[in-house]
Amino acid sequence: MPARLSRTSLSSTVLLAVAILSSRASAQGVFVTPIPNAPFSGVVNIERTIVRKDGSVMQLKSTREVARDTRGRVHNELRPLIPVSSTDTPEVMSIHLYDPQTRISTEIDVRKRTFWTRTMDHPPSTEPPSIRFAAPDGNAPPNEFTKQEDLGIREIAGVPAHGIRETQTVMDADDGKEVVITDEYWYSQDLRINLMTKHSDPRKGITTVTLAQVTRAEPDPAFFEVPQGYTRPGPQAGTEKSN
């Protein structure tokens, strides 16, 4: 019986982790800006601590590969969160590709071996959406609810990054007590991306996203192409990607 309960608990944890990561993928990865002439590749490490309603804590982790070539094309993976005690490597669930020159966004479902594309109707963003003030020349707008602290410059994965910490004090809706929420952003002006972000809310937990193993060389061109043998779903089913 204890073994069965253990397997059930582990299965529930993994399923919850997948749901969390799938629904909040953009918030739990590195937004890779599609800018030219700044190629790199790296590994994103995600650590998440979730505080449950009963006060217990669930610790999860994940990893994913990201890359950008000289043309500004982007490769970004999605993998599920798994228990921090696991020695497994999370499998790739999907891959997002983007070409700023054509504005074509491609979503690849690795498990189903399918892909679909769409042309974006707006120019690509050249800065992370969550923070645009961590660059040395950035200026945050005044906000009476948020306190901002300059954390200076430090190296992350061998790349200089400028840190900003934002602190908010809010009233908890349940008990009316003050809750302090903090966000850290470590921004690389060279790569034009956040190398690390950390969100902390004592009611919900902590999420830390860090870019590691950064290589400034040109990535493999295959990183930015749909793998051979993948097909389009729906009305165009049967259309196979071939080289």
Write a structural description.
- The chain is mainly beta and 243 residues long.
- The chain has one domain (2-236): Clam (outer membrane lipoprotein receptor (LolB), chain A).
- Helices cover 9% and strands 43% of the residues.
- The protein has one helix and twelve strands; from the N terminus they run H-E-E-E-E-E-E-E-E-E-E-E-E.
- Strands 1, 2, 3, 4, 5, 6, 7, 8, 9, 10, 11 and 12 form a twelve-stranded antiparallel sheet that branches.
- A hairpin with a 5-residue loop joins strand 1 (40-51) and strand 2.
Number of folding domains?
1
Please count the helical segments.
1
Question: What structural class do the secondary elements suggest?
Answer: mainly beta
Name the CATH class: Mainly Beta
> Considering DSSP H and I runs of 4 or more, what fraction of the residues is helical?
under 10%
**CATH-assigned fold name:** outer membrane lipoprotein receptor (LolB), chain A
Overall strand count = 12
